[in-house]
Specification:
single chain, 7-stranded beta/alpha barrel, 25 strands
Length: 676
């Protein structure tokens, strides 16, 4: 019996500038013990991809781990695999940035580890055939994708024991299909069952058992540190592999060199199946889950996988306008990067890091620190472009068919949307490198169904003593979350215009249940390029439509935004106009709002000035009005899912300031930034 080649690979990544405690935890529970263990077995050959930022962190802060990496590389145990240095989804960035990021990581590995990567870890396994020419230019000979990529493109599950050749414009690339059965077996099954799973991959002559997965499964995922290290799983597994006469550990590049491809292959634009589910809108995700249940697991695995699938990764830009905006801000600077300094180009590459642009089991876009980091890099770029005078630019930044007004002062980066009510959608400090408009809508997610309609058991126990549960089987429900599942009907920007026949109360504002009678909060305005005025001819809707025109004329100083607002309506009775602001803060409960902490919410009377002191940025945000207003404020909470269950994310504050008027309204509002 010929041996099956075990092509074993691990992928290591932490978001760029992630919390030190998060990186340190990963080091302690996962990376350090993994390489300490593997250093004992130099005959075990495996592939390793580590994102550039994390690799440099390990080199600088954890020399012992880096020493083990170098030792295993020199002994021939490790084959290094490349990707974008800052771990972008390659299909989401322009061609020259793909080549630059891959080259940057290749050069780092060559310089520091004396190795030349020939393979590529495809970030989040997001595949598009347009990548092939850029990978060819970067010296990449092969890439790893999931077997799902092949199965969903019509390939036979029995033929996933080798590699295939694909091409684009005559440039070829080898593709290795990662085995789903091995991803779910290692390290969760007992060593015996894991070995059996490897041997099951042998389908014919020169078969390969292909596994390339997150290193974090080996110690950082729940329960895995005790299982993998304290319980001795990894050592026992490596020894069992080396002692098994039917298994041969081998590098991907060696297998590629010594074996012919199984066939030519052209794959769908796809990622792994779960990613396709997550990228759908919540209602579609729930329907996809129902469809899978109706056809049954066996039919889906054998036949349905070819036809039943979710969306593509770029759907996240459709699902989350906040992600799309940040992504398109990145693209706008990438397209014109000839104007950027070297340090700003490095900030651009950091901004391309994938984690902030999507959301699945691991938090992603919902994690405020990831968005804060992304906006830091964006504002570093803007700071490098700022001049002593205020500059203006009108363009469709987010590619939605409507222009944005971009204003760059010596100290602020400001963007206003004509698609969304002439509202402020970016409010960034070039001094603090912080965007106070880094906000999210409260929106329905498919996993909210588990909170609203929990099943009897949402936690899948291990089948026995010889396995532990994977992270996908874990879910903890907090019943108190139900009351906080409130969904917004408009984006949470600033300078949002509301009209109601009733006063705005804190509770109605918090629950988005006030009686809205205007059509200005989420509708387009016309932008006059000369006067920087946004205008909408809309209406007040009560027993009928009453025509109304709202004009918003902005002007700017270095540290101040001034709005002159006028509204004329044919409705002749009393209305309340409300101007809504949504402010992102790193620590909202430490900030003060007119001298008070936010706690469970605040209501204000007789306001002409409102002051927010942000202890994190050491800045004071000052709102001033030319007439007496009333107001309400609360901490807005979004409910997201992470690897530890469901979490309340509450790093933004919603405020509304309102006045009573009849037929005509004139209101001047200024938003200024001062040092504390």
């Amino acid at each position: 019996m010929k041996k099956v080649s075990l092509l074993f690979g691990i992928h290591m990544h932490q978001p760029v500038d992630n919390f030190s405690k998060s990186v340190d935890e990963a080091i302690e529970l996962c990376y350090a013990p993994f390489f300490e263990t593997m250093a004992k077995y130099p005959d075990f050959k495996f592939a390793l991809h580590c994102s550039g930022w994390l690799l440099d962190q390990i080199k600088q802060r954890h020399p012992k781990i880096f020493k083990n990496m170098k030792k295993l590389t020199k002994s021939g145990s490790i084959e290094w695999v490349s990707a974008g240095y800052y771990e972008p989804v390659l299909s989401s960035i322009p061609s020259r940035d793909r080549v630059a990021q891959i080259t940057k990581l290749n050069d780092y590995i060559t310089k520091n580890l004396k190795a030349e990567p020939k393979g590529l870890w495809l970030t989040e396994r997001v595949w598009e055939s347009s990548l092939v020419p850029d990978l060819h230019v970067s010296g990449i000979k092969y890439a790893v994708v999931d077997d799902y990529h092949f199965l969903s493109s019509g390939f036979d599950a029995k033929e996933m024991d080798g590699y295939y050749i694909t091409e684009e414009s005559g440039k070829d690339l080898a593709l290795f299909p990662i085995s789903k059965s091995l991803r779910y077996a290692l390290p969760f099954f007992s060593v015996k069952r894991a070995i059996d799973a490897i041997l099951d991959c042998k389908k014919g002559e020169n078969s390969a058992a292909i596994i390339f997965d997150d290193a974090e499964k080996f110690g950082l995922w729940p329960e895995t540190h005790e299982w993998v290290y304290s319980g001795g799983w990894l050592e026992s597994f490596v020894e069992a592999v080396l002692q098994n006469e039917h298994i041969k550990t081998q590098h991907y590049s060696n297998y590629l060199e010594n074996n012919r491809p199984k066939a030519i292959a052209y794959l769908n634009n796809t990622s792994y199946f779960e990613m396709g589910e997550w990228s759908l809108k919540s209602e579609q995700t729930l329907e996809l889950e129902k469809l899978k249940e109706r056809v049954g697991d066996s039919y889906f695995d054998e036949v349905g996988v070819t036809f039943i699938k979710g969306g593509i990764w770029k759907n996240f830009f459709v699902k989350y306008h906040e992600s799309n905006y940040l992504h398109k801000r990145m693209l706008s600077h990438s397209i014109t990067q000839e104007k950027l300094k070297k340090s700003a180009i490095e900030s651009l590459y950091k901004l391309q890091t994938n984690d902030v642009f999507w959301h699945g089991v691991f938090g992603g876009l919902y994690l405020p620190n990831l968005r804060d980091n992304a906006y830091t890099y964006l504002l570093e770029i803007e700071r490098s472009l700022a001049k002593k005078k205020i500059t203006y630019k009108i363009e469709d930044i987010d590619k939605d068919g409507y222009d944005e007004l971009k204003v760059l002062t010596p100290v602020l980066s400001l963007v206003f949307s004509s698609r969304f009510g002439g509202q402020l959608i970016e409010f960034g400090s070039l001094e603090s490198l912080f965007n106070w408009q880094n906000t999210l809508m409260r929106r329905k997610e498919a996993y909210h169904e588990k909170i609203l309609n929990p099943k009897e058991s949402l936690y899948t126990e291990s089948e026995g003593e010889d396995e532990i549960a994977t992270i996908h089987a874990q879910s903890v429900i907090d019943e108190t979350l139900k009351d906080e599942l409130i969904y917004d009907w408009h984006p949470k920007h600033s300078f949002i215009d509301h009209f109601s026949p009733n006063r705005y109360t804190l509770e109605r504002f918090k629950r988005a249940s006030f009686h809205e009678v205007g059509d200005f909060a989420n509708q387009p305005f016309e932008l006059d390029e000369n006067s920087l005025t946004f205008t909408r001819k809309g209406g007040i809707y009560l027993e009928k439509k009453y025509p109304a025109t709202l004009k918003k004329a902005y002007s700017f100083d270095d540290d101040t935004v001034s709005l002159k607002l006028t509204c004329k309506s044919s409705y002749e009775h009393k209305l309340y106009y409300g101007c809504e602001f949504n402010i992102h803060l790193a620590h909202p409960h430490l900030a003060t709002f007119n001298g008070k902490n936010i706690e469970d919410g605040l209501e204000f009377e007789a306001l002409k000035e409102f002051e927010i002191i942000d202890t994190f940025t050491q800045k004071k945000l000052i709102l001033s009005f030319n007439r007496i207003c009333e107001g309400a404020a609360f901490t807005l909470k979004t409910i997201s899912q992470s690897e530890s269950g469901f979490e309340r994310v509450s790093q933004q504050v919603s405020l509304i300031f309102f006045v009573e008027f009849t037929k005509e309204l004139e209101l001047d509002i200024t938003l200024g930034v001062k040092n504390v």
